[in-house]
């Protein structure tokens, strides 16, 4: 097959945009000239020399392969530096994408004429077709299901996004907000070109929605941790806060998007998300592992006879309240929140407040299988001490080689996003299990796998050093699976033992709940 010229690739891209991105044929000359200028080409392919085959484009998922070839050309010609590849491809797609108003109108039209589910599928597909969600890179992530005690966990090694640092996340809250946009979640990111260390959002499209009679914006995450992974962000750049109004907004959202769940991270460093200086929520059309686990305890409340109160059999501590009566859940959530924010149990290291607030909750709203409002309230605490400088209920230090950054609502529900470095490191760890490398090599403090010393020693102890390459990979995967299970257990305030169980049940009793079983 002949290698296509950049001019021919431009024609392919125009046809792709005509087919999938609503580019009118009448705009082809304009778009072509823009692309020629971008690639510093003096003229297009000659008429009749390149006619794209319609069948080649009808079912194409994304433009990634065409863009990759154009980027290769641009690098070869010195038009861009190799590290500017993603930015360059986004600029190309910006030329071909319709403006935000067009997408908003089409989303609203589909929601009105069909239903909100179809409108979401349209927007999600557009985000992939526009390469805003870099689908080919998402597919390159390593993902698997990990059999576990409570419910199967889901694990992804994410090679597309850098590992976060908890200290830097906390520092962002103190940083003067003078930049534009003030953070990656601000509405001003739509169409923003980006700059050094700030991603381009030229192809970002958001949908305005109203929650609690306030303007918010609905968009999809470019990283796609699960199906239709969405972000809902405040119109204003205000810090995250979880209060009774939060749940009003969450319920408003699922009233608008009944096929989605939606949740808010705790609004504190170490137990919240990676961006705490802009109020936002995350959701999606997905059933999380937390929502597949069994129920451990059931309760009733004389003050809320229409509410079912449950404790799921999960690794961290979750209070689930369900009812057809949304108002009852909103009121009960407020009571649980107010009580827990001041709750102390020094024997279990749970201290609500020292010089700052430590107790917090992560609420997640959805409709259950019976069509009732369902609210999960995950109890969190971010306190640190000398023995646990990264957090008493954070990932223990012996697991930092697997995951060190904050455990937010996605992982708290059983979907783990592990740092991309693990992909390469796991391959190198195999060498110890197949006999190519020796444990004594890790005595060198500069060894690239020094952080994995404990893991490698444990794997050698359990499996020896004569495994096949395939069996070594399986052993490492199983180790990571167990590590993720242990990470979730680290985040529990009330541990899964007799002392923790009694303390959790006493908390429920103090909240006025009567145990049914």
Describe this structure in words.
The protein is of the alpha+beta class and 517 residues long. The chain has three domains: 6-96, no CATH class; 136-397 and 405-416, HIT family, subunit A; 419-490, no CATH class. Helices cover 36% and strands 15% of the residues. The chain has 16 helices and 14 strands. The strands form two sheets. It has an eleven-stranded antiparallel β-sheet. Strand 8 (295-300) and strand 9 form a beta hairpin. Helix 1 (6-20) runs antiparallel to helix 4 and helix 10 packs antiparallel against helix 11 (326-341). The longest helix has 22 residues, at 469-490. The N and C termini lie far apart (69 Å). The model has no long low-confidence stretch (mean pLDDT 93).
Describe the structure concisely for a colleague:
The protein has 517 residues and is of the alpha+beta class. The chain contains 16 helices and 14 strands.
């Amino acid at each position: 097959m002949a290698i296509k010229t950049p001019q021919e690739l431009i024609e392919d891209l125009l046809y792709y945009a005509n087919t999938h991105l609503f580019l009118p044929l009448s705009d082809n000359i304009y778009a072509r000239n823009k692309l020629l200028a971008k690639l510093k080409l003096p003229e297009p392919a000659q008429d009749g020399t390149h006619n794209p085959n319609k069948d080649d484009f009808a079912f194409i998922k994304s433009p990634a392969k065409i863009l990759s070839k154009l980027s290769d050309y641009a690098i070869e010609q010195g038009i861009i530096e190799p590290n500017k590849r993603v930015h360059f491809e986004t600029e190309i797609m910006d030329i071909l994408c319709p403006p935000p108003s067009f997408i908003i109108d089409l989303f609203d039209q589909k929601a009105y004429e069909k239903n909100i589910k179809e409108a979401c599928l349209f927007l999600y597909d557009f985000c992939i077709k526009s390469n805003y969600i870099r689908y080919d890179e998402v597919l390159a992530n390593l993902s698997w299901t990990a059999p576990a005690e409570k419910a199967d966990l889901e694990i992804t090694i994410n090679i597309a996004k850098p590992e976060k640092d908890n200290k830097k996340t906390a520092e962002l809250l103190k940083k003067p907000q003078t930049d534009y946009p003030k953070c990656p979640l601000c509405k001003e990111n739509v169409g923003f070109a980006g700059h050094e260390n700030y991603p381009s959002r030229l192809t970002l499209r958001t949908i305005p929605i109203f929650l609690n009679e306030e303007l918010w914006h609905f968009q999809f995450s470019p990283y796609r941790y699960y199906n239709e992974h969405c972000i809902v962000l405040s119109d204003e750049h205000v810090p995250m806060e979880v209060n009774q109004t939060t749940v009003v907004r969450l319920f408003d959202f699922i009233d608008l998007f009944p096929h989605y769940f939606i949740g808010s991270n705790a609004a504190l460093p170490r137990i919240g998300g990676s961006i705490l200086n802009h109020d936002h929520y995350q959701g999606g059309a997905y059933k999380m592992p937390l929502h597949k686990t069994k129920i451990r305890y059931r309760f009733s409340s004389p003050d809320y006879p229409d509410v079912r109160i449950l404790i799921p059999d999960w690794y961290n501590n979750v209070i689930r309240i369900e009812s057809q009566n949304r108002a009852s859940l909103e009121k009960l959530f407020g009571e649980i929140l107010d009580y827990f924010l001041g709750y102390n149990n020094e024997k279990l290291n749970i201290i609500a407040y020292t010089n700052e607030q430590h107790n917090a909750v992560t609420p997640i709203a959805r409709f259950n299988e019976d069509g009732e409002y369902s609210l999960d309230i995950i109890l969190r605490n971010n306190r640190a001490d000398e023995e646990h400088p990264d957090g008493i209920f954070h990932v223990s230090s012996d697991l930092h080689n697997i995951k060190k950054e904050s455990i937010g609502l996605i992982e708290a529900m059983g979907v783990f996003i592990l740092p991309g470095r693990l992909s390469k490191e796991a391959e190198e760890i195999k060498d110890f299990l197949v006999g190519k490398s020796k444990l004594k090599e890790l005595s060198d403090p500069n060894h690239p796998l020094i952080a994995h010393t404990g893991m490698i020693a444990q794997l050698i102890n359990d499996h020896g050093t004569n495994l096949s390459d395939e069996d070594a990979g399986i052993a490492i995967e199983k180790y990571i699976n167990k590590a993720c299970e242990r990470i979730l257990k680290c985040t529990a305030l009330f541990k899964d033992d007799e002392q923790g169980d009694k303390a959790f049940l006493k908390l429920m009793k103090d909240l006025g709940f009567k145990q049914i079983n």
